[in-house]
Amino acid sequence: MISLKSPREIERIPDAMVAASTDVTRGDGHVDLRFYHLLTCLNFKVSNHNETNAVVVRGLRLKGTFYRSIEIDMAGDEVRYPADTYSGTFVFLDGAREEDDVNVTYGNPAEKIGGKSLMLVPNPTASPYLGEAGIYIDYTFMGTEHTDKYIGDVANFLPMSGTIYTVELNFIGDAFVISFVVDNNQTWENGGDSDLEFE
User: Fold this and answer.
1) Whole-Å CA distances, 151 to 3, 93, 99, 138
2) CA dist., res. 94 & res. 70, Å (int)
3) Distance CA 86, CA 98 (A)
4) Mind listing the pLDDT tens digit for each residue in 21-42?
5) Given this model, what pLDDT does residue 148 score?
6) DSSP state of 97
7) The predicted structure's pLDDT at residue 198
8) 8-state DSSP, 101
9) Which strands sit side by side in the sheet containing 118-120, from one edge to the other?
10) Which parts of the chain have pLDDT scores under 50?
11) Under 8 Å CB-to-CB from 99, ≥6 apart: which residues?
12) Which residues pair with 55 in a beta bridge?
């Protein structure tokens, strides 16, 4: 059995795309395919709204149970989302080295914490849509260290395939407030003619 403590390597999750073309014969020569991304992508950003004190982020993890697969029926033009899942922890910042700590001051947000983007299977037929996943953070504020503090989950929004979301962790007062943001600069490009030749 895999526990939530089992580390998962963010970099090892492959991108997944799908394309289909029907009623193509050998005489048509080439197949025009338009590819679409199947996964949702998450980046993390930290903003500090305290004008006088910095917040130092030492660790950031997403822990929980996540969806494993998508099934596509090309004949029936149907997408199914099996209930199979996996559990573990995705580490964006591990807190192992002090030089990796992220010092966030007022008006200077830290973008893409850990330099990592996490791709997950979105399941629009389930609740929650990305699985039972919680955000945990290690941080220091005004000399007080907080370790493995649960600050919220990713259950409250419907993610779209092929979209990169920034999970904004806004430090307000003495706590984090979470919001999910997508903009035009963070949407994958779909498409592509593959020019596959039938022989």
Assistant:
1) 20, 15, 24, 10
2) 30
3) 31
4) 777 777 777 777 777 788 888 9
5) 94
6) -
7) 36
8) -
9) 118-120, 40-48, 164-172, 175-181
10) 1-3, 191-199
11) none
12) 104, 141
